[in-house]
Amino acid sequence: MDNLSLLWGGLESAVTPENLLWAALGVLLGTFVGVLPGIGPAMAVALLLPVTYGLEPTQAFIMFAGIYYGGMYGGSTTSILLNTPGESSSVMTAIEGNKMAKAGRAAQALATAAIGSFIAGTVGTLGVVFFAPALADVAVRIGAPSYLAITIMALVLVTAVLGTSRLRGFIALFLGLTIGLVGLDLNTGQPRLSFGTTQLADRLDIVVVAVGIFALGEALWVAAHLRRTPMQITPVGQPFMGKDDWRRSVGPWLRGTALGFPFGAVPAGGAETPTFLSYLAEKKLSKHPEEFGRGAIEGVAGPEAANNASAAGTFVPLLALGLPVTATATIMLAALQGYGIQPGPQLMTEQPDLVWTLLASLLIGNTLLLVLNLPLAPLWARLLRVPRPYLYSGILFFASLGAYTVNLDAFDLFLLLVFGLLGLAMRRFGLPVLPLVLGVILGPILESKAREALAISGGSASGLVDEPLAVAVYTVVALLLLVPFVVARLRPARPRTDGGATPETGKRTDDGELVER
Amino acid sequence: MSTILVGFTPDEFGRAAVRHAAAEARHRGYRLLIVNGSKGDAYVDRRFAAPEVLAHVGDGLNGVEHEVRQVVVADVAEELLRIAVAEQVRLVVLGLRRRTPVGKLLMGSVAQRVILEAMCPVLAVKPDTEPV
Fold first, then answer.
1. Is ipTM strictly over 0.85?
2. Would you say A38 and A217 are in contact if contact means Cβ atoms under 8 Å apart?
């Protein structure tokens, strides 16, 4: 139980009044942004990056952890009350949750979502405590070629498997990789894509890119679609659950947690798949299948737990391999780099204090979330009445302030605008944002590992595939890319027997894409 | 047939406006045009009536001829004034809400603009009052 004593040490250093304050602030901010559709935790963390440069890394991460979990929770509130999922992982919650709310059971839906999130987050974080160090132990021993292969796998999976359109995904990915190239080549010192300007040769600051794409892009997109018919919100009081609700929720919570965690923990996680699977599983297992589609509490409890367990699971690849798989985790990785901490397999051995304090603060943030947010639900619902122009002018203010404070250089504001327009164009043409941000962050890591592998082999391309693990990973990547094509070729030959499941899947990801934009 | 325009909101102010407008319409033999509007710039607007509320807004009218419209426009006051001219409205009926000075400064007032700028008479009514 070595890990548990380390976690206990982390708890001891995390539970100071000051840290608790940052955790509470993070949870409140996270819920704030999670409740509002279109503003996700990734945008919140990106906007706050410059603010946290004045903080200790530990405190910054305690706050980010709060934002991450808070954003998840806030998304479920909006899904249930408004039938507008704040983020793609809440799509399944919206289906049954909004039906429950319409039937006058909003309080129970919110309560089962909150308590389920708490349980899944706690169990998931304990899962990270046990799995991440073990994975990191293995990961330190793998060489540059295998690390390169795993990074490529994460990029390909996030791009090709999670989105609706592979083409759009890869366009976004390569845009991101290109943006990641801008600046001095670290090996030779040659400026690349800098167009003769010293500011660009200095490499792009991730804050400017992320804030531009997430915040400015979203603000411009909202401004272009400012007037929409207002939606009808279900009035809500204090969340609570009756005895029967508890009895019906416990199973889905635990099953959802078990489903969500592994999906978050593999380098191509994401919460869409496990929430969908959890919904299907609960529908199958339920003693009241007739209630599904009309507001079944199991359909809220399961996906909500899966959603948060997978959010916790994403910390496994992030901490053990330095590989983020969600937009928020990507920005958190950038924050680590901002502190001069190189994420990767060595993180756990070189910065154990930081890692264990972070894990402990995840547990604290999760508990605070439950304590603070259950009573505050009606207040969060009122937030949806704020006119968008007020909201987004505030966001634009913080975005510009953040971009400017990075280097105190007005050129960054120009860059911010450029990336804001890029973000607007991506939303207009339906390009997913995640592959781009992932490309910007992982591109340089990818390049340095490839260079390292090639340097060892003396420039011979065989150096990229001389480890068995690398070959195995490349095979998996190739299979994942090819199998859907083959299946698509074979399918029209057969009559559509499995038509029931397919359209549902398609519809779900469509919704997810809409929300992501 | 001449028209009375009612600015409707799904609350006691809007209901008072409809009650008074219905009494006027019955008395004069006019028809009612009930308009509910929102700027549509927030995710949720309490003054934007739900479809089921709008469907029942004419229930207590006892046969007064009426039409219900719902609009999402940049400026609700502007739209009411435009409709008043376009439909040659003879009377506009509005429910008045009490505003704090700060509230007025921040949010503006639809009623104030309609009262000041409408070319036809405007009847401003208080909640919890019945037409005589």
1. no
2. no
